[in-house]
Amino acid sequence: MRRVFRPLAVFSIASGVSLAVALQLLVGGARGHDGPGDFGTSAFFPGYDLAKLDLVDPTLYHISESYVDQSRLDWDAMFNAALDAIEHDVPVCMFTREPGGDLLSVEIGEYRTVLEVPPIRRRQELQSELRRVAELLATHLDEDDLPEAPGAPAPMAQIEYALINGMLSTLDPHSVLLPPDDAREMDVENQGEFGGLGITISMDADGGRLIVDYPLKDTPAHAAGLQSDDHIVRIDGESTINMSLDDAVRRLRGPVGAPVVVEVMRPGVPEPIQFRVQRELISINPVEDELVDGTDIGYVSIKGFHEKVEQKLHEALARLHREAGGALDGLILDLRGNPGGFLNQAVKVADTFLDSGDIVSTVDGEGRRTDIDKARKASEPHYPIAVLVDANSASASEIVAGALRFNERAVIIGERTFGKGSVQNLHPFSDNSKLKLTISKYLTPGDRSIQAVGIPADIELLTSIVPPRAEPGALQSPIRLFYRERVRREADLDHSLEQTTVRFDDPTYRVRYVDVQRERRRTDALDLRSDFQVRLARDVLKASEGWRRADVLSSAHPVVERYRKIGNDQLLEAFSAYGIDWARGPVVPVGDDPLEVHLDLGPDGRLVAGEAEQIAVEVTNLTDQTLYRVAAIVSESEVLSGREFFFGRLEPGETRRYEQRVRLPAGWPAEEGSLSLELRDASEQAISRWTGRLVVAGRPLPSLAWRWEVLDDGGDSDGLLDVGERLRIQLEVQNHGEGPTSEPFARLRNRSGKSMDLVVGTLEPGALQRADGSPCPAGEEPDCERILEPGASWSGDFLVDVRALPTDGEPLRLELTLGDSAAYDHGSVVRAGFHGWFSQHDTLVLHEGQQLPSSDLRIPPVVSITRSPPPYSDSSRITLSGVVTDDVGVSNVMIFAGDNKVFFEGSGPTSALRSLPFTADVELQDGSNVLTVLATDADGFVSSRSVLSWFDGIGLAQLHPLDPADPAGSGER
Q: Is the dihedral of CA 860, 866, 869, 872 positive or negative?
């Protein structure tokens, strides 16, 4: 059945732009026999019963009573989406219900039944049908059938979470059920306080190490002496090797007053340094401030709107006034990257600067006003204000920016904002999960809805990245002038509320400039010197002859012109290093076909997965006029989308060529599709479009098999687990696939806390080689791969120190993860979103008093496809067939066409089937189709294979394919 819900996609939205946006905590609820107070009072205590659906009922109640747009409630679609979410997450489940049909086919492992489910018209009918399905799931699902969900309070609870989030996915991208762990993290962000040390940490991209970015002033970490660039090697005696950033944060946080021991390696110091730090209440201060460059213009940055932001803002403003000698000459309010927060805090922040006027009003789905917030007497005196925003400024940030702009109190500088014009309520549930539900839309002053549109900038800043030209043979970073146009906003999200019809004026000014690469922040002190946007805002405010928006804009022209020249000079100088004349010139009228275009993909006319290739676009000016700043941007292509090509000045009849180095991941599947180039001139608008056919050749992929043995030859060699000895875990990796590895890895994670200490936790199988097979030193060549050829094997050793035995009698556990960061099936993992099939997971269990364990050879299932559609199909109906084989038994096989589960077969983790054939008839959709085969064996090891096929009936077949004999092929214009 057609699946809408994708858990990872929903939660990436929830934890990114909309995790903490316009939150209004509900206390209590409506009265009556079916009010929310009657639901869920005993949910998730011991004896949790999925069949009761303790959270579904209150969720549906809140939806029916308070969802912003009742016309969007399609109870039947919500039922389908709920089942789709389950069958996506639980391999042994599959539900089939034809559109408009009355029968639901249910498959749960080996159990089969058919239910009569007529179209669902009412909430009560949906509750009843979901409960019937939940009863079957509770009866026939085994906990071993479920994927791991560490945050779920009971194993089966994740089924109910999936059901609810499936239903919510049909509403809008901001309505979501937050599981307990996510809900707790959101509470910390919104409250702005936690027990901790007061350091910011990050993961070193190169070595995966935990690095201290900087300690905050007046915190335990600062007092103890922790410094920027310290590498945290242990937390409370537990090694941080292969510890995730989230796990590290959880270990560093804790009860106020409780100590934590942090061990670090410091650059230039040969021995580790140990700090015993007592946790204190740490306030997350999203407000930072300073005077700009010795002027009396203040700078205030707000990173989020938690419940104390107004207080922190007033403290910052008072401090700035004192430092300015009593009065500021202007203020830069930086809301870039601010995702939002509490609605009431946004209102109070805006009210700080407004004497009168509307700040924000809320309306229901039918446009009826439900609330309005008006400005009172401003606490701040009149001075000019510039608000910095970007595409990631959302919700509460947009309320502040909109209120100041439309009340003529501030100019907006930067980019059009995200465009989230909806408000959510939080409903806490008894299991500590929280329902975040969209309950209204908000309007900025003048009853303007910014939903899916955003707040426009008065002075629009166009960020460009032109890196220095690399030395010959070195990897060249790409030039990107137009990349910010592709930033995802509200309108790009699935099921976003309808776009408003409000039309905003174009920006008064536009300035393009070259951004500079900033180093990682190493101190809690601000450094605004290299920030082009702050400097421009400073000078715009200095030039202003009044405090109103119109005054600031009318005085800004000479400043903007000066910064335009700075930006233009930056571009000219940067492009000149590439031999490109990027001089500005007049924009001239052109005909329908002003440019002849050739795309060169090399001698074979195609891209090959895993191979570094030079591709080129060649353009010829067919007009009788000089064209300036000619560029081409790839669109409508999964393969090269967003690539930019630059030609600059083109005289009549002149031809110029621009080359780029491209290397697709080694696991990119074979595919054919269309590629569009949008041609632009100095107007930065499209003057022509070229479309051609793009071919990608896949390459055979590796399949890693492995075995391990735990040895105590670093101890007493008695073969038993003893405290104080160093264990050597010998790992053998074999490549049973048809292709070589590229970036293989094996990582060990400690799952027993302080009882064990990882000494060597990461191995890289294979030999480091260049593309021609010659060896290369690590990091010396951009095209080096770690090669383990088909049929070859490799051995290496992990080292683990045993420091204690658990007092509860539990065994020691280590988790082994193996995979290849490049040579994996890109189609199934990335394109189709099945991230759980990226790597293999194995568990090493060590018991006190028992022989140290070893494993047999672990071999993942093998997926063999015997019949599949071609990369380009001229028929919409195709068949995908094959067989899955395994040495211990095939547990289950699934086939997805996009998000639609079209095949399931299996007998669970006890299966002894060594071979399981599959076949599915699939209806292709227009465009690119990703068909994915997912297999799991009786040991829980996985394999995936994807097939990509393009179908559109007419379009692709009419495009000119690239001729290998004449690689500079042409396409349709």
A: positive
DSSP state of 833: -
CATH topology agreement for domains 704-858 and 860-973: yes
Superfamily (CATH) of domain 193-283 = PDZ domain (2.30.42.10)
In the chain, pLDDT over 70 holds for what percent of residues?
Answer: 90
Q: DSSP readout, 290-346?
A: EESTTSSEEEEEE--B-TTHHHHHHHHHHHHHHHTTS--SEEEEE-TT---BBHHHH
Highest mean pLDDT (candidates 40-49, 758-767, 777-786): 758-767
Domain 595-697 has CATH 2.60.40.10: yes
Residue 273 has pLDDT above 80, yes or no: yes
Measure the CA–CA gap between 77 and 97, rounded to whole angstroms.
11
| Strand extents, DSSP E, 713-806 | 726-735, 744-750, 756-760, 762-763, 767-769, 785-787, 793-802
* Architecture category of domain 704-858 in CATH: Sandwich (2.60)
Q: What is the CA radius of gyration of the chain?
A: 30
Q: For residue 711, name the pLDDT band (cuts at 50, 70, 90).
A: very high
Boundaries of every domain in the chain: 7-174, 193-283, 297-571, 595-697, 704-858, 860-973
| 273 CB-contact burial (10 Å; exposed 0-12 / middle 13-18 / buried 19+) | middle
Q: What is the helix, strand, coil percentage profile of the chain, to 5? A: 20, 35, 45
CATH assignment, 297-571:
3.90.226.10
Q: Which of 144-148, 839-843, 930-934 has the lowest mean pLDDT?
A: 144-148
Residue 219 is given by DSSP the state: S
| pLDDT tens readout for residues 781-795 | 667 889 999 999 999
SS3 392: coil
> Quick one: fold of 860-973?
Immunoglobulin-like (2.60.40)
